Amino acid sequence: MSEGLLRASGALAQKGLNFLTRILGIDFGEKRIGLAISDPLGFTAQGINTLPHTGLKNVIEALAEVCRQHEVREIVIGLPVNMNGSLGPKAKEILELVPRLEKKLDLPVKTWDERLSTRQVGRLMIEGGVSREERKKKSDRLAAVLILQSYLESKRNS
Predict the structure, then answer these.
(1) For the chain, what are the domain ranges?
(2) Residue 24: which pLDDT band, with cuts at 50, 70 and 90?
(3) More confident residue, 23 or 114
(4) How far apart are the C-alpha atoms of 50 and 34, rounded to whole Å?
(5) For residue 129, is it left (φ>0), alpha (ψ between -120 and 50) or beta?
(6) Over the range 106-126, which residues count as b (16 or more CB within 10 Å of their CB) and which as e?
(7) What is the arrangement of strands in the sheet containing 72-79, beginning at the earlier edge strand?
(8) Neighbours of 59 (CB within 10 A)
(9) Which of 10, 21, 41, 148 is deepest in the core (most CB within 10 A)?
(10) Where are the alpha helices (DSSP H) in the chain?
(11) What is the end-to-end Cα distance of the chain in Å, rounded?
């Protein structure tokens, strides 16, 4: 590894970013679960796929496989906070899910305020001329990308 890369990894580690560690971002919807993965240096988030919500047991098994394939060391899941900052039923459901995911996947799981992420994704796709059918297919994955990218940027800036 080059000296410059070693210096960069040390600087990232001081900011709480582990060198060559991937983070999984999740947008946990009622029908689909959008997924995004960070690059190994923690700079960018890329959408990887969308899982159908076929029951919690199946979803956790699929997430475990994704974590193994991508060598994930941390998970960030979107928390749907209401605009006034309160937690509605879906947010409470996510908060109950977090310890289960941590136990089953043996990874730290953090929540991240996802207010407006789905709306922002929809607006971007409409502006980009994406059809309604394609928006439906891609919105969860793109919301996961926004959640993870926002989280990565906050870690770099802290």
Answers:
(1) 20-157
(2) very high
(3) 23
(4) 5
(5) left
(6) ebebebbebeebbeebbeebe
(7) 45-52, 32-38, 22-28, 72-79, 109-113
(8) 18
(9) 148
(10) 3-14, 56-70, 89-105, 117-127, 132-157
(11) 27
Distance of CA 137 to the CA centre of its chain: 17
DSSP track, 56-92: HHHHHHHHHHHHHHHTEEEEEEEE-B-TTS-B-HHHH
Cα–Cα distances (Å) from 72 to 5, 54, 100, 117, 133, in that order, read 21, 22, 17, 23, 31
Question: What is the chain's length?
Answer: 158
Q: pLDDT tens-digit profile of 40-86?
A: 989 999 999 899 999 999 999 999 999 999 999 999 999 998 888 88
CATH of domain 20-157: 3.30.420.140
Contact yes or no for 46/39 (Cβ under 8 A):
yes
Q: Which residues partner with 37 through β-bridges?
A: 24, 46
Quick one: tokens of 154? 């906050």
The answer to whether 117 and 143 have CB atoms below 8 angstroms apart is yes
Round the average pLDDT of the chain to a whole number and report it. Answer: 84
